[in-house]
Design a protein that fits this description.
The structure holds two protein chains of two kinds. By secondary structure, chain A is mainly alpha-helical. Chain A contains five helices and no strands. Chain B is mainly alpha-helical. The chains are: A mainly alpha, B mainly alpha. Chains A and B meet through helix 2, helix 4 and helix 5 of A and helix 1, helix 2, helix 6, helix 7 and helix 9 of B.
Chain lengths: 89, 186
C-alpha cells in the first residue's frame, strides 16, 4: 500500500458514524484525523452527508425559536406557574 | 430550606422557556407541556436539598423533566424497534467496502428545492414524532439548547458513548424521514 493509498484508507461508513455521533473524539490520533479530513475533501457523498446532518440541527434550532416564543403566551405560562408554585410552597 | 416567593419567581422566569421547549420537543401539546413543567418545578422545589452542585440547575431540571415525561403513557414502549430500524437502514446505505451505495436526493429540480425549503421546518417537526423520547431529548438538548455532552449525559443519565449512539440514531432517523418526504436538506 502506498502512502497515498494509506492516507485515503477511510471508509464512508466510519466517516458517517463519526459525524452523526458528534460527541466522541475520533480514535487513532493525528494520522486518523488526517485521513478523516482527506476523506471529507475527496468524497462528495460524505461531504453532502456532513452538510445534511449539520443542516438538520440548524433547521431544528430555527423552527424551535419561532413558534414557541410568543412573548405574551410565555408570560402567561410563567404567571400561572408562579401563582401555583408560590401558593404551594 | 424552603425557597421564598422571590426565589421561586426567579427560578420560573429563568428556566420556563427552556423547559417548555424541551416538553414541546418531546411531543407534548401545550396544556400537557405546562403541566409537565409545573411538575418539574414542584419536584425541584421539594427535593432541592438533593441537588448536587456537580451540575447546573438547568441540567438538573432537564433530568427531572425527562424522568417525569417518561412516566407518562405518551412516551412508553416502541423504543427498541425504532433503534433497530435506524441501524438497519443506516447499514443498508453502504456496500461491502463500507462506502456509500445509494447516493440519494439528487432527482429534484431547483424549483422543487425552493418550494421544499419553505416548509422543511414543518416536515422536520413531523419527523420528530418518529423518534423515541431519549432521541428527541438528546437531540433537543444538543442542537436547540446547545448543551455540552457532559451536561446532557448528566441530565439523561447516559454515558458519553450511549449519548453518541443516541444522537447518531436521532440524526439518521431524521435524515431518512426527511428524504422519504422528498425534502432537500442541504
Amino acid at each position: 500500500m502506498t502512502l497515498l493509498d494509506s492516507l485515503m484508507d477511510f471508509s464512508c461508513k466510519r466517516f458517517a458514524r463519526h459525524i452523526a455521533m458528534g460527541v466522541v473524539p475520533l480514535e487513532g490520533g493525528p494520522y486518523r484525523r488526517l485521513q478523516f479530513c482527506i476523506h471529507w475533501l475527496i468524497c462528495p457523498f460524505c461531504k453532502r452527508y456532513w452538510k445534511e446532518i449539520r443542516e438538520i440541527g440548524k433547521i431544528q434550532r430555527a423552527s424551535r425559536a419561532a413558534p414557541y416564543h410568543p412573548t405574551v403566551r410565555m408570560t402567561d405560562v410563567k404567571d400561572r406557574l408562579k401563582q401555583k408554585l408560590i401558593k404551594a410552597s | 430550606m424552603n425557597p421564598d416567593a422571590q426565589e421561586i419567581a426567579s427560578l420560573i422566569d429563568r428556566y420556563t422557556d427552556n423547559l417548555m421547549r424541551a416538553a414541546f420537543s418531546l411531543g407534548f401539546p401545550e396544556a400537557e407541556a405546562e403541566e409537565l413543567v409545573q411538575a418539574t418545578f414542584y419536584a425541584y422545589l421539594e427535593g432541592g436539598s438533593r441537588f448536587e452542585r456537580r451540575s447546573q440547575i438547568l441540567t438538573y431540571l432537564f433530568g427531572i423533566l425527562y424522568n417525569k415525561a417518561r412516566e407518562t403513557r405518551r412516551l412508553q414502549a416502541r423504543h427498541e424497534s425504532i433503534d433497530k430500524a435506524v441501524d438497519d437502514t443506516f447499514e443498508s446505505h453502504f456496500d461491502t467496502e463500507d462506502h456509500w451505495d445509494q447516493p440519494s436526493m439528487d432527482s429534484m429540480t431547483e424549483v422543487e428545492k425552493k418550494a421544499q425549503s419553505a416548509h422543511i421546518g414543518d416536515l422536520l417537526k413531523e419527523c420528530l414524532d418518529g423518534l423515541s423520547a431519549i432521541m428527541r431529548m438528546a437531540f433537543t438538548l444538543k442542537e436547540v439548547e446547545g448543551m455540552d455532552s457532559e451536561n446532557i449525559c448528566l441530565a439523561l443519565d447516559l454515558t458519553t458513548s450511549n449519548l453518541g449512539v443516541t444522537l447518531f440514531r436521532a440524526r439518521n432517523k431524521l435524515r431518512e424521514c426527511l428524504m422519504s418526504k422528498g425534502a432537500v436538506i442541504s
